[in-house]
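Notebook, student rotation project (T.W.).
Task set for the rotation: take a protein with a known small-molecule partner, predict the structure of the complex, and write up what can be learned from the model alone. Partner molecule chosen: flavin-adenine dinucleotide. Sequence and SMILES entered below by T.W., checked by me.
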Amino acid sequence: MTQFRAHPILSPVLGLEGYYEPASTDEALDILRQGSGNYKPFAGGTDVMINLRRRTVTYKGLVNIKRLPGITSWSNKAGEGLHIGAATPFGDLESSPSVTQRYSALAESIRVIGSVQLRNMATIGGNLCNASPAADSAPALIVSKATITFTGNGEGTRSCLVEQFFRGPGRSILDSDGLLLSLDIPEPEPNSGDCFQRFTPRGALDIGIASAASRVTLDQSSGRVLEAVIALGAVAPTPVRAVKAEEALVGHEPTSDLMAQAAKIAKEECNPISDIRGSASYRQALVEVLVRRTLEQAVERAQK
Ligand SMILES: Cc1cc2nc3c(=O)[nH]c(=O)nc-3n(C[C@H](O)[C@H](O)[C@H](O)COP(=O)(O)OP(=O)(O)OC[C@H]3O[C@@H](n4cnc5c(N)ncnc54)[C@H](O)[C@@H]3O)c2cc1C
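Predicted structure of the complex:
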């Protein structure tokens, strides 16, 4: 078995058996395997470090993945879309006009996350891997048809759609030794538009009580809806699609009445819990409002 050298200063400071900074994916996977589920990968640490401090979790070791090749960088190539390393901080994406001008829903979801300081640390991969039903980037990535590439679990490198990634609150298809490597977001189709909105009672530094993202593609000649994708956050055990609401839109002219009708259907499709932030019925009422507003905005953008 390969012996890895734990960081001599940070390991004792963090009270850990080992703190590692691997330089290759294979090395990271080996360390995680040797940790037998007790070693945690982390990127920005905005969730992991807080959990460690609050002692809500105990890890024997931490694996900082930010030195893995390509994991903190991203690119936008014509015809290929966005390729984003999993440990890219939101702040890097937020400051780029090529993201904000073409990927509206994603940009809108990033803008509401935490604060400027937080977004300079927090990464897009960490937001997904945390697998919170309220993860703000998830609905926008789902409607953008984003795919993720991941490795580990002894099965090599694979890809799937973001919507197939989540298994339940705090659970994803990654096992304890799995690593999310990158995300790919296709270029927006012609005559399409998208939008993300969330509701929080406070302006910032709070997670959403409910969120929605919508993407609409219109037929160029008739103006009718060719395709609609609607994703909801914080109203089910995982981020979810509102498939029946999507179906209600396809083939029709996107009138205000139709969008209001689809929003009502989405309200019935979600399955929220009641908690300290809001009751289930309040969340459902928010879904109806957010879906209607995001659809209207998405259609307006598609028509431009
Ligand atoms: C004050 C505050 C405000 C916040 N506001 C928001 C908000 O408005 N909206 C929102 O959605 N979130 C919010 N968050 C949550 C958090 O900041 C985000 O989820 C962030 O994107 C996590 O990214 P990270 O890189 O810091 O994750 P980390 O803390 O590094 O990791 C989070 C989880 O993902 C795993 N992980 C990270 N990267 C990988 C990888 N590549 N492969 C496998 N596993 C990985 C870790 O093991 C851990 O389980 C907030 C947090 C704080 C502290």
